[in-house]
Amino acid sequence: MKKLVLSVAGALLVLTATPMIGRAAAPSTSMQQQSKPQSKTFSGTIMKNGDNYMLNDTANKTSYMLDDVEKASKYEGKKVKVTGIVDMASNTIHVETIQEAA
Q: Is the pTM higher than 0.70?
């Protein structure tokens, strides 16, 4: 009986230690797309906050810091559409483009 238990335990150990053949080493494309942030468009009014600028989105009751002071300063007090990637940890939009809203 001991030999049978040891044989089964040994076989299980070998099976679990053997790498799976045919398994992809790199993450699948769908996993890579999920981890890469996507650009989004946000609407609101650009407001000055100290040395920084914010996008005040009254429709969603949200404000975002804008990381491009030079682009944002041209639209202070105006309704705009900002395209960029949001850093949720700092609530900052990494600005790609800013356009005045119609």
A: no
